[in-house]
Amino acid sequence: MAIQPPPLINATPGDPITSEAWNNIIASIKALYEVHNQSASRLEITVTNDKDGSVIKKALVTLVPEKGPPVTAGFAGAETQKYLVNVIKPGSYKLFVEAPDYADEIRELLIPEKGEAVKITIEMTKTANRKKVGNYFGESLSAAKNVIDEAGFLLNRIIDSHGEELSLADIKDQGAKVKVLNQVPAPGEEHRAGGPVALLVSSVPVAAQRVKVPDLQGLTFNEARVALEDLDLILGETQITSSK
Hints:
Helix content is about 20%, strand content about 30%. It is α+β, with helices and mostly antiparallel strands and about 240 residues long. The chain folds into four domains: about 1-35; about 40-125, Sandwich (Immunoglobulin-like), CATH 2.60.40; about 130-200, Trypsin Inhibitor V, Chain A; about 210-235, no CATH class. About 15% of the residues are buried.
């Protein structure tokens, strides 16, 4: 919008300023303010939780114009409970709203030329709480189960190194004897609260049963084989020699 200032009088150093010249200067400044105020708007943004309508007070509200630096809206508490930009120029903006534990919201926003107040409401959706998964490698199954429970995750699958699926009931008998070899999700990954965790654990060591080898002297080949099988032993390599 073009501004037509009142007549301005050029003066040389030492000339007195007449009341007419001074009034013209004041009128010109007022005209600039009036044009500026007519073209600028006031922006009011209400940010709420989409579930219960409660006001979110710790959001970061940023407006990025097509040209020029970003503008940040400040939160006004008390009875206002809104994010405000008292003077914003007309034009197209991209509006970014961020808040802890909420999904980001992005809007296209047009501020009109008329200079009227713009009021909008942004509803934000709360995201699931997420935590970093710990490192359970080398921990006993019992200890890992306790840490997983305390972190708010769900231990839903346990597989031993033989490929056998273990149940949660098996933890009572084997939990202290086996160690964690691998895990899903991996250590350090962000995982939602209540999310599933799977563990690969070692197998329970089985002590080998030991038996005394019987005296096989004087027995026939078949008699010796049967005697060994009765003790769960296997006849290995044999060598036949003459008794002469």
